[in-house]
Amino acid sequence: NASYQGGDDEEDDEYLDWFWSVLGELDDEKKTKFVVFVTASDRAPLGGWRDCRLIVQRSGREERRDCLPASFTCMSMLMLPRYETRAKLRSKLLQAIESSEGFGLQ
User: Which DSSP letter does residue 37 get?
Assistant: First the structure.
């Protein structure tokens, strides 16, 4: 379950295809880190992953394309800047999820 906010044009469709393909290429460990980055939890919701609703929000101005993705974990919202290339999207997304600490609870 996912929705996209912040644009409706064909470029956004291609960009979202980049995002989903990058996410699909990640190994299980990095996918788990992505889930923690977006939700602050590495556990599935009580109703299963179907009940986890991801919101991908286009963020940032066009001239600020070097920002890392951010998240609002209480809403499972990924704030995703629009990068020029798929490779840069992948690099910045990995940098964000690898640097994330979540709440640091064990």
Answer: H
In the residue annotation, 74 being an active-site residue is answered as yes
Residue 68 has which token pair?
Answer: 């890392």
CB count within 10 Å of CB 51 equals 10
Alpha helices per DSSP H over the chain:
10-25, 28-39, 86-99
CA dihedral 92, 75, 6, 21 (to 10 degrees): 40
* Catalytic member of 8, 47, 74, 103: 74
Tell me the pLDDT of the chain (106 aa) as tens digits: 677 776 666 667 788 899 999 999 999 899 889 988 998 887 777 776 677 788 888 886 665 668 899 999 888 899 999 898 999 999 999 999 998 765 555 4
Buried b (16+ CB within 10 A) or exposed e, 3-42: ebeeeeeeeeeebbebbeebeeebeeebeebbbbbbbbee
Q: For residue 98, give the amino acid letter.
A: E
